[in-house]
């Protein structure tokens, strides 16, 4: 019965993924909002009795499902970015300046602020740190309304003017992997005790080595696949010539697998692989075809997960939620993330040399639209499998509430705010 219900839910998600974007195009309502709402209504009926909704009993299923959704989204996001990142070009690095600031300043500030709020609310230090780490990264899955639309190919010039969408897209692509060291810090704090017992290991291995391995694995896999697809001497291997866009799936699976097997962060490997692949034959239409495959799969998986999340909300997922979880979730969305983003993007007092290519309204918009989503659920599920003290029902309820609140608040505001920004730019 459970398998049959899963097919019903998957079919409904696929149908909605096809029709919702066009139906909601002119309204300030996003597809994720609708799917969560539909799921909540379904949860009030006796239909989903056989679905695996309890996160404590189905942690592994939740972990691997959300893991798949995130890596598919990361491949799509990486392929969508037109702006190159050339390692030996300082100018290229400076063009990504807002992204580096949000990652190096904004994300640690967010993690620290949420952890402090959790600790002040009575949570053990490890649990508070996990809450901050899980909720810190913005989500490439649910932020499509404020991200770049897709790769510009066929000889089109790259639009360098839309710094806002580029910043939000590149940040979401990178911070899912870069939040992992802090999740591991929470795990080590819960399992190893005092920070002095594991601080050097964390810095050397979890923060530096695993990030480096993940990035290098993504670069190598992306370069190899790009060479095969575009320049192989064997015509059968030059899949770009015949437009075989399923290479996008092979690339995301291969890069994630290689990154994880080598001991790096697979999320970083997938995004960097997509960026690396995108750098080859940048104007080729094949990139758009690959992006379309990743985007369609991402949309189906995302709406499936959101529908299940909506069902779970009215089937007990929020039973452990209290005022602390509500306060922390809303504080993150309305205060912590905006404040951290504004501080990260603020001009430096160096006679203009530290400015970012964003207007003041754009900086405020980037700071506000830190969408929380599927990645937060994955990190919580992963950590819960490492230590039982990190598997509290309260954490599941708080993260679920924060994700749904983000879907609602950001979903309502995305269309009018982005329309206003676009109008001002014109």
UniProtKB/TrEMBL annotation:
GO biological process: proton transmembrane transport
Residue ranges crossing the lipid bilayer per the database entry: 6-24, 31-48, 60-81, 102-121, 178-200, 207-230, 250-277, 297-317, 323-344, 364-382, 394-419
Pfam families assigned to the protein according to its UniProt record, in alphabetical order: Na_H_Exchanger
Highest taxon of source: Bacteria
Annotated InterPro entries: Cation/H_exchanger_TM, Na+/solute_symporter_sf
CC terms in the record's Gene Ontology section: plasma membrane
Subcellular location: Cell membrane
Keywords of this entry: Antiport, Cell membrane, Ion transport, Membrane, Transmembrane, Transmembrane helix, Transport
Membrane topology: Multi-pass membrane protein
Residue span(s) of domain Cation/H+ exchanger transmembrane: 15-419
Gene Ontology molecular function: any one: antiporter activity
Gene3D superfamilies in the cross-refs: 1.20.1530.20
Protein name, per record: NhaP-type Na+/H+ or K+/H+ antiporter
Organism (species): Nocardioides panzhihuensis
